[in-house]
Design brief:
The complex is a heterotrimer of chains A (635), B (76) and C (674). Chain B is mostly beta strands and 76 residues long. Chain B is built from no helices and five strands. In chain B, strands 2-3-4-5 form a four-stranded antiparallel sheet, with no helix packed on it. Classes of the chains: A alpha+beta (635), B mainly beta (76), C alpha+beta (674).
């Protein structure tokens, strides 16, 4: 573990002895690593075609040190956080299996097997070895979501797959490029097995150009500062991260805590639930996170692998203990993760099918946020929307050409929880992701849909001194016949867990109006009455979402087929509150009611604040009834 | 192994094998051998459950339980 | 020639440049944040505007109001069900927020919204992407929402309906209703007039900012105009837009989102003009201010222009803007120690107050300015034209109290190197981003801190030389006298670049040109510039500002121009892919009277230093630098480093191993001695 003198106490001689360069160069190089990634990621974004790549930011980049240093990862890109922890392992896994001795300048090594590289088969890992003075000196890496990798479902997003063999093309570590030249049989293997090959080919060419740029920039740094200094700087950045994590752990009280969260079901039927559990033990600067007690791997493709579990544990600790330091492989140094085999978050082939890896990782994040709330005290953070709630739709245009919509018509966006810093944002994305939202007008220009409503729902945020973000309600009108695939696995229990005295956010759901008359004027659907309750906890009388409503299973249709004119409504979960809601300043509750985040009844019930006035017609006329509030708040 | 049956129990546990002896750091008799994931990948460790001190840390297999069928270079 | 006056309002100072009879006069007036026009008028008074032809003004009043949220209450009307678009933005977070669970969108409801949610109202209507109407406008319901806004006494209204870029009819009618309900004096901005571009959030944000700017500027321009008038000014008052193009003041205030942030663009324009004079079209402008360094690239005599920019994270404004990159390294950047013991410089800044420790205004933390003082670069007695004394002991104490293992003697040197490195890193990164090699470029040093810092950064950037223009601290203001008047219109219309679309595109462009000409005097002497933003089919982002030749559009040439621009920006292209135009733009450019660089007299004899000073930390041992007055140096004068060249408002550093040569136009060119 860390038995070294604190880094800040090292004088220049001691620093040099340890890292092969001075402090100044190490700092410069640390920044340089981040810039190198930014450059080749910008290039990717500028040139990428795939909307999942370009808009959903479904990629990640890292720099890695060479095998002789243990493959340290000093820097990860600003993008899909969920990838980055897998990459600390998957580069090693891929190169060790391929054989580091076979690597040559100009190679690109690829792999996409979830059991070797994490996430799902669509996320292809591209690795370029960087040589200096004839020696293997590091790697520049991109992991990018490819629109399709073959298999039974176009695009791959489905929770009904029951074996790995349905996923499409699995690529063990192999060369895509050798000495700068394409390896033809790798390219043909890919394009003979995947859909949308033209688009993938262009993006893969762009990816290789990005790796060329990254390699050149890293090699130039080695030319300028020396190989030893660059590798020393990588070690320093990782060591600094490890030290910050250890110091943050040491500041927490020692103890044992546990937490759990739930995946409601799988894609086969509603007979089995999948809890994710964590037991955390902390002693001094050491922490152990044990996932024993977690459900076995699911029957359908909602599993994740041990690499995804590793990512989530690291990401959670960074979020809660070191939010401003960059993510490196060093953050795991004081952390041991105990992972049972064959769990929903550590699935094994062939039955532990992985596609929607985000489900179990979201549940693990919630379980850990919950477990750590107690030792964190005021540093606890409320839970988020908890799921991608991805909606895929497929159809055919009048001319027979297919259209696909992924990630636009669902509940992809939702709130974060409250914290000591303030209320949570309502319109965000589950915490392990970070991507640019597709504009409604861009989606509508390309796809046969109209988003009729996208706004926040009153009384859905977890109450608190600082409340969570509100749930997002989204109505999508589908203007052409389509087959819809849904997966919403986090509605049985709130994902927006309340912390430090705050309350849980509400749960959401999915509703369908299968209106088959596209000529009838469409109105934004007020109320819930005539819809089909597709998913979530729904009150049977009235069809509205309800905390103790009957839970509806989304997967009772494997694919929901609709005619033109159907509307799907998604309601996300609400964000978790932080702190005692009865301590929220009455003026802020008044502002919430005026702004429609909380109703008058909700203000009294959840915050103990009594307000007079009509928020809908006279928002500025609202007033706090101080006497009644004091009474309600028991003071 | 490259192919695994689905676990038959609804939840799964990570096995820990108790080991005799006292922890050199805290003196407790709570040693166990098990597998962990940490910086650098999988490790087979012997740790004190009481204070989390590691007595042994030996690199574990690259993918944990999973060994791809047909990979020719495995030495661990 | 009648005098030309350029005024650039900054956070601390309002810079005023007057060019009269070929001579340049400069003055700096302390800014008055609460009443910025006072500083502008004081600057005008010092110059004497009687007889001046032109008064070109870059103002930050609107920007500052928005950044500090010192804004009036306005309403936002949008399609029913979508009022939360202003809270959501593009729903992503920056690097520093990636793993921060407390990060919130700066303009979101949970932080500091521009328009509170209860003032964001939905109107029952719905237009589709093809312009078709799904739900007709419910005028009664709309009147009801407007009546509520009136009861709330909003000062203005921004209107942005979904897909209005494709069909503005509902927005136009809603604007009429707004005028009816709120009264004829109500300030209204309508998104399809502000800029009919697709993507609802940037368009809505721009519309909101536009009406806020109208309110914030309010009578500012009236006061300014009246004040200048009373000083005898009878010339043209223009505002600069975010590309530093000039707009007559009344016209500017019809769509003031365009004039949000002109200073950095003016700096780029000044670089272009200087480059034209000295025959160097490949420049990297480095404007080193108190808090940050703004870097702009000029390639082949042209800066890069983008079709939008962000005022703060994700708050996108659709306006043509010169591309400027900013790094948090400036003269006031604070020197601190990281948790693992490294010296860091910035991004936090000591600002104007308290400012550097040596300012004696209560600042206790060391800054880059303190380092420059302790190194000997700054003269404690001659700062700011002799108006300020700098406290050396305070600067020493600030460095001594840093908590780190680095010996105090080395901290100043390290801070210097880190600051230079941060600036150099940004310069190199800007170049790489554009596929350029800094070795092919000259740096231009300006701003308050540029001349004292950038010689030290030259080698790190790899640029071939450093150019310090005269009056480097007011170089941006001079840029306001280096551009033309521009009248612009743009509109989104998704059109494939195929022969079938040519008639529609011709009509669209002709329509916009006609609208612009109608605003000018008949027979006005203008150049027409047309361009479009397009995308490769399948991509969701556009490549902006592809030039369209005169005459009826030739699709083959247009397509080729797109592919060439795509490759120029991205370093690779896909010339076989079909192209779709998204936004179409017409600009009428009317030449403005400009500042012209004039050659200076040649140097007679060897340059005579006026003194000497010891400089520390520039070499292994302290070195003695000769000090010169810039005004005493003629064209051809050669000065070897280490040296300091002083002018009233700037200090230029030449480091050991460099030579400075005064150019034809009094610019100082610093290069490594061969």
């Amino acid at each position: 573990m860390i038995d070294q003198p604190a880094l800040r106490t090292l004088d220049d001689a001691a620093f040099r002895a340890r890292y092969g360069c001075g402090r100044f160069d190490a700092t410069v190089l640390g920044n340089r690593f981040a810039y190198i990634l930014e450059h080749f990621c910008s290039k990717l974004l500028a040139c990428a075609f795939s909307p999942v790549l370009r808009d959903f930011y479904d990629f990640a980049a890292t720099l890695t040190g060479p095998p002789e240093r243990g493959y340290p990862t000093p820097v990860v890109s600003r993008s899909f956080v969920a990838f980055t922890g897998t990459m600390t392992e998957s580069i090693r896994n891929t190169i060790e299996e391929y054989g580091p001795g076979r690597l040559e300048p100009g190679d690109v090594i690829i792999a996409n097997d979830p059991y070797r590289t994490g996430t799902h088969v669509n996320d292809m890992l591209f690795i370029r070895p960087v040589f200096h003075g004839g020696r293997l000196s590091g790697f520049v890496n991109l992991k990018c979501h490819q629109l399709d990798m073959g298999g039974s479902v176009p695009g791959g997003f489905s929770v009904t797959k029951t074996s790995s063999y349905e996923n499409g093309l699995v690529l063990s570590p192999r060369a895509l490029m050798k000495r700068g030249e394409p390896v033809d049989e790798t390219w043909t293997l890919i394009f003979d097995n995947v859909r949308f090959g033209e688009l993938l080919r262009r993006d893969m060419q762009t990816i290789i150009a990005c790796l060329d740029l990254g390699e050149r920039l890293l090699a130039e740094s080695m030319d300028r500062y020396g190989r030893d200094a660059v590798l020393g700087a990588m070690d320093y950045v990782c060591d600094a991260d490890a030290e910050r994590m250890a110091e943050a752990l040491a500041r927490l009280p020692d103890g044992d805590w546990s937490g759990d969260a739930l995946l409601d079901c799988d894609g086969m039927d509603a007979s089995e639930e999948y809890p994710v559990r964590c037991a955390i033990r902390k002693r001094g600067a050491r922490i152990e996170v044990d996932l024993s007690g977690t459900a076995r791997q699911a029957r359908t493709s909602i599993n994740g692998t041990y690499l995804d579990a590793k990512t989530t544990v690291g990401v959670v600790l960074k979020f809660l203990l070191d939010p401003h330091g960059g993510f490196t492989s060093g953050c795991y140094r004081p952390v041991d993760i105990v992972i049972p085999d064959g769990a929903v978050c550590s699935a094994l082939p062939p039955d532990g099918v992985v596609f929607a890896y985000g489900e179990s990782t979201n549940a693990l994040l919630a379980a850990m946020f919950s477990a750590l709330a107690e030792p964190l005290g005021t540093g606890a953070v409320g839970g988020d929307t908890g799921a991608p709630n991805l909606h895929s739709a497929f159809g055919q245009r009048p001319d027979g050409s297919p259209w696909v919509s992924i990630g636009v018509g669902g509940g992809e966006r939702g709130p974060w929880g409250g914290s000591s810093a303030g209320d949570g944002d309502s319109y965000s994305i589950f915490m392990q992701a970070n991507s640019i939202d597709t504009p409604i007008e861009a989606a509508e220009a390309d796809q046969p849909l109209a988003i009729m409503r996208r706004e926040y729902r009153a009384d859905s945020a977890g109450a608190g001194h600082n409340r969570g973000g509100a749930a997002v309600l989204k109505d999508t009108l589908w203007r052409a016949p389509a087959a819809h695939n849904l997966f919403t696995l986090r509605f049985k229990r709130p994902t927006g867990i309340g912390v430090h005295g705050g309350r849980d956010g509400a749960t959401g759901g999915v509703w369908l109006w299968p209106d088959l008359n596209p000529e009838a004027p469409q109105r934004a659907r007020d109320g819930w009455g005539d819809a089909i309750g597709v998913a979530g906890r729904i009150d049977p009388a009235g069809n509205a979402p309800a905390r103790d409503g009957e839970w509806q299973y989304f997967g009772r249709e494997k694919s929901w087929r609709t005619g033109a004119g159907a509307t799907f409504r998604y309601l996300s979960n609400g964000g978790g509150g932080w702190g005692d809601p009865f301590a929220r300043e009455p003026e802020r509750v008044l502002a919430d009611v005026r702004n429609g985040y909380v109703s008058i009844a909700g203000a009294a019930r959840d915050y103990g604040v009594v307000l007079t006035g009509d928020p809908d017609r006279d928002p500025e006329g609202l007033a706090v009834d101080r006497a009644a509030t004091e009474t309600l708040r028991g003071r | 192994m490259h192919s695994f049956p689905r676990p038959s129990s609804p939840t799964v546990e990570a096995p820990r094998e108790p080991r005799p002896g006292a922890c050199p750091e805290c003196g407790a008799s709570a040693l166990a051998a098990y597998r962990v994931m940490s910086e650098g990948g999988w490790w087979n460790v012997v740790k004190c459950r009481s204070c989390l001190h590691s007595l042994e840390r030996v690199p574990g297999p690259l993918h944990g339980a999973f060994t791809p069928l047909g990979a020719p270079r495995w030495t661990r | 020639m009648d005098a030309l006056i350029g005024v650039d309002v900054g956070g601390t100072f309002t810079d005023v440049v007057m060019v009269k009879d070929g001579a340049v006069h400069v003055t700096k007036v302390p800014s008055v944040p609460a009443r910025p026009e006072l500083a502008v008028l004081e600057g005008a008074r010092r110059c004497g505007v009687d007889g001046a032809a032109i008064f070109n003004h870059a103002s930050t009043k609107g920007l500052n109001a928005i950044l500090t949220r010192a804004i009036p209450k306005i309403g936002f009307l949008t399609t029913d069900g979508h009022r939360d678009m202003l809270d959501g933005g593009r729903a992503w977070r920056p690097w520093k927020g990636q793993l921060d669970p407390r990060w919130r969108r700066p303009f979101g409801d949970a932080a500091r919204p521009l328009v509170e949610r209860y003032l964001r109202r939905g109107v029952k209507e719905r237009v589709l992407a093809d312009g078709g109407v799904l739900i007709p406008l419910d005028e009664d319901q709309a009147r009801g929402e407007l009546a509520l806004l009136r009861r709330c006494n909003v000062a203005g209204v921004a209107i942005c309906l979904l897909n209005s870029y494709a069909n503005p009819a509902h927005e136009a009618r809603l604007a009429e209703l707004a005028r009816e309900v709120l009264g004829p004096d109500a300030l209204i901005s309508v998104s399809h007039r502000v800029g009919a571009r697709a993507r609802e959030f940037p368009r809505a944000a721009t519309t909101v900012i536009d009406v806020l700017m109208k309110l914030v500027y309010g009578d500012y321009a009236d006061k300014l105009s009246a004040g200048l008038d009373s000083q005898g000014f009878r010339g043209d008052l223009n505002f600069a837009d975010c590309t530093a193009a000039l707009i007559p003041w009344r016209e500017a205030l019809e769509a003031p989102h365009r004039i949000l942030f002109a200073g950095p663009a003016a700096g780029a324009a000044s670089c272009v003009a200087l480059g034209e004079a000295i025959g160097d079209g490949n420049l990297i402008g480095c404007d080193v201010g108190g808090t940050s360094t703004d870097v702009t690239m000029i390639v082949g005599g042209q800066p890069f222009t983008n079709d939008s920019f962000e005022i703060e994270w994700d708050l996108v404004v659709n306006a043509l803007a010169t591309e400027v990159s900013s790094v948090g390294a400036g003269g006031g950047s604070i020197v601190a120690v990281s948790p693992s013991g490294d010296i860091m410089v910035g991004p936090e800044s000591a600002g104007a107050v308290p400012g550097a420790a040596c300012y004696g205004r209560g600042g206790t933390r060391p800054t880059v300015t303190d380092a420059c003082l302790l190194m000997g670069i700054l003269d404690p007695h001659g700062f700011a034209d002799g108006q300020m004394e700098l406290d050396v002991a305070a600067a020493e104490h600030a460095f001594a109290t840093l908590d780190c293992a680095i010996p105090p003697a080395e901290r100043v040197a390290t801070a210097w190197r880190v600051a230079l490195n941060n600036i150099a890193e940004e310069v190199v990164n800007v170049a790489i981003r554009h596929g350029a090699d800094p070795r092919d470029f000259s740096l231009v040093a300006f701003g308050a801190g540029g001349p004292m810092l950038l010689a030290g950064a030259l080698e790190l950037t790899g640029a071939r030389r450093l150019i310090v223009p005269p009056h480097p601290g007011l170089f941006s203001a001079l840029g306001l006298l280096s551009t033309d008047l521009v009248f612009a219109e743009s509109r989104s219309a998704y059109q494939m670049l195929s022969p079938d679309s040519a008639p529609a595109i011709d009509a669209l462009l002709a329509g916009m040109e006609g609208q612009l000409r109608a605003r000018l005097a008949p027979g006005a002497d203008v150049r027409v510039q047309r361009s479009f933003d397009g995308r490769l089919v399948g991509q969701s982002w556009e490549t902006p500002f592809v030039a369209i030749e005169d005459g009826p559009v030739d699709m083959a040439r247009l397509t080729a121009a797109f592919h060439a621009e795509y490759a120029r920006r991205n370093g690779q292209g896909f010339p076989d892919m079909p192209v779709q135009g998204v936004t179409w733009r017409v600009q009428l450019v009317a030449p403005s009277t400009r500042f012209e660089w004039k050659p200076i007299a040649g140097q007679q004899g060897a340059p005579a230093p006026i003194g000497r000073r010891v400089l520390h930390h520039l070499a292994d041992e302290p070195v003695e630098a000769r000090i010169y007055e810039r005004a005493s140096l003629g064209a051809g004068a050669l000065v070897d480093g280490p040296a300091i060249i002083r002018e009233p408002l700037s200090t230029i550093l030449v480091i050991p191993g460099q030579t400075a040569r005064v150019g034809r136009f009094s610019e100082i060119v610093i290069e490594a001695r061969p």
